[in-house]
Design brief:
By secondary structure, the protein is an alpha+beta fold. It is built from 15 helices and 18 strands. InterPro entries: FAD-bd_oxidored_4_C, FAD-bd_PCMH, FAD-bd_PCMH-like_sf, FAD-bd_PCMH_sub1, FAD-bd_PCMH_sub2, FAD-linked_Oxase-like_C, FAD-oxidored/transferase_4, Oxid_FAD_bind_N.
Length: 460
């Protein structure tokens, strides 16, 4: 549809609804953080309420257009990119936090509420929203729901799914559903809420969510340990889990640390570089933390360590971990967001290291991850002189080996970033043909004309 035809259609059918066809808006809202696809949206809508979203979806069904829901666009799987003239629905105006219930400890949040806003709102009520990650200052709640986001505290608090008590959605056919409506216990048949959580916008557009909040946790301590080897990581994890009440157990490599130090101008937290590091957050218990450190030293797993002595120092130590993605973003990294059972992490990483040495001899690889829940982030950095398309193609060739190993370990090709366009060709490494067929059938039920995020996750 030509731009003038589209303008005429929208002025006739969606009079009064805010939209833009400005090149800057089309580029901004037509891509996410992957940068592997040229954005090619035809229009960006800025609806104000659920009725306007429903109007857009119904018009898309009548005209055969494809619609892409858009949040903070912080994803790494190209799940929110427009590559072929799609209509984009930005949920940025759905940014209200309302209906806080101190008895139920619940709150309603619009799709466009930023994660950090919800965290701050909870804190202002003396409560806690534990889902947290490096993009909390820009990611939207609906995007978190769409990918069932996890982050740095999954080890203790679980995933986004565990905090969604209710959802309001507009399906691909334009129906409005109010799912579970905040109930804690509800055994009245199928709970469609859980179909939409993690569905990456292929079934419906999330409008609002009712979120469960928690009591504030005890005071937390942060400890950064420098480890002797890859094998030492899980040994230290087992040791720490016995002695401490862990909220987080994050790891990163020496290459990751060097990138963060260079990007942010940080000093080395230790006197020298070490092969691997783990950052622990736990209920305040300095005596037990010292026991973990000393036992790790005696066992030959730990070279050095720091226990934060103030909130400022704890924040600084976290920056060495949370600054990694930002420090490598300009290299257009190819991200492998993978997971295996926690007990299998050492064996998996050992075999994966052999694959990386053989298949990526000329590329720099950056390791970090939420290793306490089996989630590893492997980032391949694009050489400055290599074409982006060629780089992506080479990484996808190596994926056959990486994902083949994941399949052997019964793991996941996507632990928390979703499938989108980038991981879609490799979905059979994690899902059986029967599962994929059923996923397609579910999409057909909620989006019979395939207007929502067509081509992402599974074929319509």
């Amino acid at each position: 549809m030509q731009a003038n035809e589209l303008s005429s259609l929208l002025e006739t059918e969606l009079s009064g609804l805010a939209w833009s066809m400005q090149p800057g808006d089309l580029e901004q809202f037509g891509q996410d953080w992957t940068r592997f696809h040229q954005p090619d949206a035809s229009v960006v809508f800025f609806p104000n309420d659920i009725a306007e979203v429903q109007q857009i979806i119904r018009l898309a069904n009548r005209t055969g257009q494809v619609v892409i829901p858009s949040g903070g666009r912080t994803g790494y799987s190209a799940g929110a990119v427009a590559t072929g003239g799609e209509w984009v629905i930005s949920m940025v105006r759905f940014n209200a936090i309302s209906d806080f219930n101190p008895i139920d400890q619940t709150v309603k949040v619009g799709a466009g509420v930023i994660t950090e806003q919800l965290q701050q709102f909870a804190a202002d009520q003396g409560l806690f929203y534990p889902v947290d990650f490096a993009s909390s200052g820009s990611s939207h709640i609906a995007g978190n729901i769409a990918t069932n986001a996890g982050g740095i505290r999954v080890l203790r608090y679980g995933l986004t799914r565990d905090y969604v008590l209710g959802l309001t959605v507009v399906t691909g056919s334009g129906e409005i559903l109010h799912l579970n409506q905040g109930l804690v216990k509800n055994a009245s048949g199928l709970d469609f809420r859980h179909l939409f959580i993690g569905s990456e916008g292929i079934l419906g557009v999330v409008i609002e969510a009712e979120i469960k909040l928690l009591a504030q946790p005890p005071n937390q301590s942060v400890m950064l340990l420098a480890l002797t080897s890859l094998e030492a990581i899980m040994s230290v994890f087992a040791l720490a889990r016995k002695s401490l009440v862990l909220s987080s157990f994050e790891f990163f490599s020496d290459r990751s640390l060097k990138r963060v130090m260079a990007h942010r101008g940080f000093d080395n937290p230790f006197d020298e570089l070490h092969p691997f590091y783990v950052l622990l957050e736990f209920d305040e218990n300095e005596a037990a933390a010292m026991d973990v450190f000393e036992s790790g030293m005696e066992s030959g797993w730990v070279n050095d360590g720091i226990i934060a002595q103030s909130l400022d120092q704890a924040t600084q130590l976290w920056q060495y971990r949370e600054g990694i993605s930002e420090s490598i973003a300009h290299y257009t990294p190819y991200k492998n967001d993978i997971s295996v059972k926690i007990s299998l992490v050492p064996a998996f990483m050992e075999q994966l290291e052999d694959i990386l040495a053989a298949e990526y001899p000329d590329f720099e690889t950056i390791w970090f991850g939420h290793i306490g829940d089996g989630n590893l982030h492997l980032n391949i950095l694009k050489p400055a002189d290599m074409d982006t398309a060629e780089f992506k193609a080479q990484c996808e060739q190596v994926n056959v080996h990486v994902y083949g190993l994941i399949q052997q370990f019964s793991g996941s090709i996507s632990a928390e970033h979703g499938v989108g366009l980038i991981k879609k060709p490799f979905l059979p490494y994690s899902k059986s043909a029967e599962e994929i067929r059923l996923m397609q059938a579910v999409k057909q039920v909620f989006d019979p004309n395939g207007v929502l995020n067509r081509g992402k996750v599974v074929d319509s």
